[in-house]
Amino acid sequence: MKEQLKSLCEICAKFSYFLINNSSTAQDDPFLVGVDRMINEEQFICTRQTSTDSNKRLIDKLKEFRTKYEVDMNTIKSTREDLTLSNIYELIKSVNAIPMVRIQVDAIKKYQQLLVENNQRVVHEDETH
User: Fold this and answer.
1) What per-residue string of b and e applies to 2-26 under the rule 16 or more CB within 10 Å gives b?
2) Which of 46, 47, 61, 62 would bridge 51 by S-S if both were Cys, CB 3.0 to 4.6 A apart?
3) How far is CA 21 from CA 14, 25, 33, 49, 82, in A?
4) Beta carbons within 8 Å of 29's beta carbon, 6+ residues apart
5) What phi and psi values does residue 23 have, to the nearest 5 degrees?
């Protein structure tokens, strides 16, 4: 599990590096923005509610992940790694091969399918009235 997390962190840095370097506009690192948002949300929960120790552990793990990500990103920047679209597709395949990622992606697909089916039903009902 630790090795998968390490690999996932490195791949996330490569995705972000690719997106930032192939974007027509200068932007902040979208991945770091998301991680920082999660950290802030967990910290907000800890200040507003009686939180369990799990919230604090999650904050610590997210901060560790953020630090590891920054190290990976700096390494990629310093080597000026040339990532092609083919490299990105291979990275996507490797991420999808991680069992926990595959479970999450499958859950998201099922949820999206339920939303589509629900919306089709609502549209059909509206058309018949």
Assistant:
1) eeeeeebbbbbbbbbbbebeeeeee
2) 46
3) 10, 9, 17, 40, 10
4) 16, 20, 73
5) -95, 145
Assigned token pair, 76: 């990629």
Read off the tokens for 44: 């907000």
Tokens of 40: 């802030």
C-alpha to C-alpha distance for 49 and 119, rounded to whole angstroms: 36
Token reading at 107 = 């859950």
Close Cβ partners of 5 (under 8 Å, ≥ 6 residues apart): 65
pLDDT digit string (tens) for the chain, length 129 residues: 778 888 888 999 999 999 888 887 767 888 899 999 999 999 888 888 776 788 888 999 999 999 999 999 999 999 988 888 999 999 999 999 888 889 999 999 999 999 888 887 766 566 665
Question: How many other CB atoms are there within 10 angstroms of residue 113's CB atom?
Answer: 10
> How distant, in Å, are the alpha carbons of 9, 65, 75, 95, 101 from that of 79?
17, 21, 6, 22, 28
Helix (H) / strand (E) element for 119: namely helix 99-128
